[in-house]
Design goal:
It is built from 2 helices and no strands. The protein is mainly alpha-helical and about 70 residues long. Helix 1 runs antiparallel to helix 2.
Length: about 70
């Protein structure tokens, strides 16, 4: 898990809470701010997942030659 996923999750949860407070108080501005923060968090979390997947793929590619070499010697 990387920084983008952590911060994105925090923004998602905080934005959802802010949106709910806006709903309960009838404050449209707070609702909108919460929804925007929540959307930002979801996007940032997704970006973090993409970065993690790219990192994992890169690690797999680096390990592939050694795995192939190991299979040839069996």
């Amino acid at each position: 898990m990387n920084k983008d996923r952590v911060v994105g999750s925090i923004n998602d949860v905080a934005g959802g809470a802010k949106r709910k407070v806006g709903n309960l108080t009838g404050n449209t501005r707070t609702q909108v701010e919460g929804a925007v923060q929540q959307a930002k968090g979801k996007v940032q979390n997704t970006w973090g997942k993409v970065k993690d997947a790219a990192h994992d793929a890169q690690a797999s590619l680096k390990a592939a030659p050694e795995a192939i070499k190991h299979l040839k010697h069996k």
